[in-house]
C-alpha cells in the first residue's frame, strides 16, 4: 500500500481550515483540471460524519467514479474519508489539524492501494503515487489560498 504524508501550514484559524478541507464546492474548484464533479450523495456544502459523496472525474483520459464516506470526525482536529466504491482496491485519507503558534498545520495521511496485485503495485511506485501527491498539493494550495484570503 502506498502512503503519502503532506503537511501544509496555513495562516488561518483551525476551524476555518477544517471546514474548507471538507467543502465539496472548494474541492470541485481545486480539481477543475480533471473536471471533477460531485454527482451523488452530498453534492455541495460541507460534508459531515457518515455522509458520502460520489465523484466523477477524468484522469489519464479515462472517466472514473468514486464514492467516499466520512467515517470518523472530531471537530476541528480530525476527519477520515474512505473510498467505499471506486477504482482503488483501498483508499483511506486522514485529515489532521493542529495549531502551531498562530498557524494551523494541516496534515494529510493518504493511503491507497491500486487493484491488480503486482501490476498495481508497480503502477503505484512508478507514477500513481506522484500523481496523487500532485492532486493533494493542488487541493491544499486552494485551501490555503482561500483560508488566508
From TrEMBL:
Q: Which GO terms describe its biological process?
A: cell division
Task: Note the superkingdom of the native organism.
Answer: Bacteria
Q: Keyword annotations for this protein? A: Cell cycle, Cell division
Q: Which InterPro entries match?
A: START-like_dom_sf
CDD domains documented for this protein: SRPBCC_3
Q: Which SUPFAM superfamilies match?
A: Bet v1-like (SSF55961)
Query: What name appears for this protein in its UniProt entry?
Result: Cell division protein
Species of provenance: Pedobacter kyonggii
Amino acid at each position: 500500500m502506498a502512503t503519502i504524508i503532506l503537511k501544509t501550514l496555513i495562516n488561518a484559524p483551525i476551524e476555518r481550515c477544517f471546514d474548507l478541507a471538507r467543502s465539496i464546492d472548494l474541492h470541485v474548484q481545486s480539481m477543475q483540471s480533471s473536471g471533477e464533479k460531485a454527482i451523488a450523495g452530498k453534492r455541495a456544502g460541507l460534508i459531515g460524519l457518515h455522509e458520502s459523496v460520489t465523484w466523477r472525474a477524468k484522469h489519464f483520459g479515462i472517466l472514473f467514479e468514486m464514492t467516499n464516506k466520512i467515517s470518523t470526525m472530531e471537530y476541528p482536529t480530525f476527519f477520515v474519508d474512505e473510498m467505499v466504491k471506486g477504482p482503488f482496491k483501498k483508499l483511506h485519507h486522514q485529515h489532521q489539524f493542529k495549531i502551531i503558534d498562530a498557524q494551523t498545520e494541516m496534515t494529510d495521511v493518504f493511503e491507497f492501494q491500486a487493484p491488480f496485485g503486482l501490476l498495481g503495485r508497480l503502477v503505484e511506485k512508478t507514477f500513481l503515487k506522484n500523481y496523487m501527491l500532485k492532486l493533494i498539493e493542488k487541493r491544499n494550495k486552494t485551501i490555503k489560498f482561500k483560508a488566508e484570503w
